[in-house]
Structure to design on (431 residues):
């Protein structure tokens, strides 16, 4: 009973954080209040995350706090507001995007009796997971995997298809957490540039992923998801609306526009589909659904403290990365290093948060840095046994997380090679 109360209060606070963050994006007021609301929600929902995530987050907060104290002792400057509110816009976007679950997949998809099987089902499920995951994030995995595991346990092959399809969306999706991280940590990077650069990489990698997965001896027995691609109309409308509105309101942060339009479009579509149940469904989601983002909430709150601590030390001691410039060659090294760290359990956000203060002063093209962060997120999530998607599938469906990560290792080398090639091509085109 008490846990349900915490979850409901957490959901209300997250809704308030969305409102305050969007207000701040348009007016410049409410930055600290939005961050404080997020932290209150995080404290209420801290018990919802796994023990491993708790320790990981506490370690990040501790290191960040030590860095802030160290920087203050050296320089006399202390920016607590940055630690509290640095990721409030990103968290508001993630919470707002969660509302899309109410409209992105129609009920007919959930009740259809026929289940596609075989190699074509792998292609269809992989692409469907990718496209829906690009908009409604981790909710997609739960919707699809729940259906696939109704009559038999989720198989390793099914889990691997979901893992790859989902993680590759990080390369381009405006609605993915990775894009918010890139826009926040690669100051000056542009959404449209990174999206257009990421789409061909993701498309090529989806083809390679499908080809590899079809070579499995179990591919003929694969049971997929009955995906109707006409359901992509709503996500497509949202993506176009974001880009159009950004063109007319270039001074408003893109993640603020995504947060605003995600909630607005959800309410509009619900009003057309079920005019008598709009308030009930929306309130029910706030009270019983928003708390499901507690993992991301705790992670990004902790990452904000870590990044602030690193920035404090870098500023106080005038630290430099020892690089004269930052181009495709240097980005490739960072990509490999952060991916290796992710494979042993260090979340990509940690590598991104610690490298950003060091790299920003020497970066000539912030879009290249933003692309690097998108790639780090995509590869890191795919090969990490501790990524949210793998832990969720282990906890909910019994597929061991490290086995999913191991199944993706054979996909890692071609992915890294293509991403590194893309970094050099991008540098050549923009030189």
């Amino acid at each position: 009973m008490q846990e349900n109360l915490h979850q409901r209060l957490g959901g209300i606070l997250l809704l308030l954080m969305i409102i305050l963050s969007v207000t701040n994006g348009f007016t410049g007021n409410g930055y600290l209040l939005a961050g404080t609301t997020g932290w209150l929600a995080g404290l209420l929902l801290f018990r919802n995350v796994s023990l491993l995530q708790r320790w990981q987050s506490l370690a990040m907060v501790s290191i960040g706090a030590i860095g802030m104290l160290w920087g203050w002792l050296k320089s006399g400057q202390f920016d607590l507001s940055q630690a509290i509110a640095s990721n409030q816009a990103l968290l508001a976007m993630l919470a707002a995007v969660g509302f899309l679950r109410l409209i992105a997949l129609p009920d007919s998809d959930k009740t259809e009796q026929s289940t596609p099987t075989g190699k074509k089902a792998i292609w269809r499920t992989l692409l469907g997971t990718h496209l829906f995951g690009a908009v409604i994030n981790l909710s997609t995995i739960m919707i699809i995997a729940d259906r696939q595991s109704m009559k038999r346990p989720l198989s390793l092959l099914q889990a691997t298809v979901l893992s790859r399809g989902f993680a590759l969306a990080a390369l381009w999706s405006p609605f993915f957490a990775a894009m918010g991280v890139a826009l926040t940590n690669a100051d000056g990077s542009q959404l449209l540039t990174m999206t257009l650069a990421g789409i061909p990489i993701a498309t090529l990698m989806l083809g390679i992923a499908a080809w590899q997965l079809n070579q499995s001896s179990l591919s003929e027995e694969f049971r997929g998801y009955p995906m109707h691609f006409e359901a992509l109309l709503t996500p497509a409308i949202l993506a176009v609306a974001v880009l159009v509105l950004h063109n007319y309101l270039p001074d408003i942060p893109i993640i603020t526009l995504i947060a605003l339009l995600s909630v607005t479009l959800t309410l509009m579509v619900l009003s057309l589909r079920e005019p008598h149940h709009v308030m009930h469904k929306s309130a029910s989601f706030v009270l019983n659904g928003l708390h499901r983002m507690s993992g991301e909430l705790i992670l990004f709150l902790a990452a904000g403290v870590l990044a602030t601590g690193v920035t404090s030390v870098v500023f106080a001691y005038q630290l430099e990365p020892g690089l004269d410039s930052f181009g495709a060659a240097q980005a490739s090294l960072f990509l490999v290093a952060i991916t290796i760290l992710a494979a042993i359990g260090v979340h990509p956000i940690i590598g991104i948060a610690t490298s950003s203060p060091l790299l920003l002063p020497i970066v000539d093209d912030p879009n290249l840095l933003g692309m690097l962060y998108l790639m780090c997120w995509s590869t890191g999530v795919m090969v990490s046994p501790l990524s949210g998607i793998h832990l969720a599938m282990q906890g909910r469906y019994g597929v061991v997380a490290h086995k999913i990560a191991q199944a993706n290792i054979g996909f890692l080398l071609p992915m890294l090679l293509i991403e590194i090639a893309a970094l050099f091509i991008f540098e050549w085109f923009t030189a």
